[in-house]
Amino acid sequence: MSDKDLKQAEQSRISRRKLVKYAGVGATLAAASPVVGATAAFADEEEERGKQPGDSRGRVWRAGDHHVHSEYSGEFDTSSNPPKFHKGADAVYPIVTNAIMAKNFGLTWAMCTDHGGPTHSKVNLEQAYPDLLRSRKLVPEVLQFWGMEFDAPSLDHHTLMIPRHEDEAKQLFELESRFAKYDAFPSDPGRDTEAKMIEFLKVARNMPLKPIVIAHHASRSAPGLGVYGQDTPREFRNGNNVAPDVYIGFEGAPGHQAGPLNGGDRGGYGNYPTHGGFDQMTARVGGLWDSLLGEGRRWWITATSDSHVHWTRGGSDFWPGEYSKTHVLARQDYADIMDGLRNGRIWVGTGDLIRSLDVTAGSQGRKAEMGETITLSRRNRTDVEIEIRFRPLDGVNANGDRPEVRRVDLIVGNITGPSADVNADTNPTTRVVARFGPRDWRRQGAEYVIRHTLRDVEQDMYARVRGTSTDEMEPLADGLESPWHDLWFYSNPVFVRVR
User: Fold this and answer.
1) What is the reported pLDDT for 168?
2) Which residues of 77-86 are buried (b: 16+ CB within 10 A; e: fewer)?
3) Contacts of 441 (CB under 8 A, 6+ apart)
4) Which fold has domain 17-498?
5) What is the pTM of this model?
6) Every domain of the chain and the residues it spans
7) For the chain, which ranges sit under pLDDT 70?
8) Which distant-in-sequence residues (6+ apart) come within 8 Å of 15 by Cβ?
9) What is the pLDDT of residue 292?
């Protein structure tokens, strides 16, 4: 980290000391008041959302975080039977503190995702869930989902998001107690197999109210570029084949992004680094994400905090919403948020580089947006008009900066159908077809607009967008630079089908 970065980090530390002081006390804070005064950047968030036009169903972009830890990410004393659980060993904040901070940084939905362990399903049911119910009452402005950081059989951690309903606690208990690889006591090696993961997904897909499963920090254990660790392309494909409306994606931008502020690795990726804060599976054009999209899979990316301990208290984390956000086009409704996640109405960003992003593909009088498909006829002209709209941040972000978009890239790839190689991790057709700078977009109200024509589209394809505050043509491997100086946003794809 340079002297300049160290100085800015120290200034940021000082400016946030008061914020951390009242947020860190947890239960005392919750008892005193369920509402914390928002920072300048987000004080008008609800008012601004009310001004957004939204879609015909009343949906607007709503920021959230589906990977947040509380004091129920603890430890177990296995010298006794049953094991004794101790709170706060890994993550330290009460559930309500996370909800307060999520609200403070502009989130309208969030999810508590605590680690499992021997008999943790009972801890969730008997201790954590009642705290979640209290937090929902104290911070009603934030929709607070129930679920966990699932110890996925044969894989690294995953979000397991449960739909909001009367028996949500029972549903999570059933799935965790039956399938989480560390829940059994004594331990059961038979739980840690790909076959067990497939069994879990089959049960989940047949539930009347289907959960959502999203892979966490998918390349954190990868030793190199294109060399994977616990999570492999084969396992993603096999799982998505079994339950395509349950197993829907991975974190494009993992949490622990504040690591460099304390001399650590961004994202906790100590083997092979993130690129611009994004996992290699997402950041590499023509890489694994594009390989999955090139098969026509509806496989989405998200961005999370993975918050355990704030960096100003020696951790490697930002608060929920402080740095990373997953934006979902939805109503302020539990079911519609999950519908947006399930169907790819999602864009992600870091450092609040922008506040909204819309990508549409139009042709022959038809139009499709992120997560949707536009179907065209070969009998007519098949030019496709891509429109990109983004809204810059009004005011400053949580670091006190006014970030500016330096460039926006339009990325397209062909859809060629299922790959014969279940381990494939490249799509050679994927390319950046256009790069746009400030001279290429025009102001329209509060938004900037970019239009580009894809000529003579003759086969199925997808289009996605990314943007950055940097001058890097491709996101570089991350070191100890401040994450606030390396900001990116990514859309999920819009699909074009030619018939």
Assistant:
1) 98
2) eeeeeebebe
3) 388, 408, 448, 449, 450
4) TIM Barrel (3.20.20)
5) 0.90
6) 17-498
7) 1-56, 380-381
8) 400
9) 98
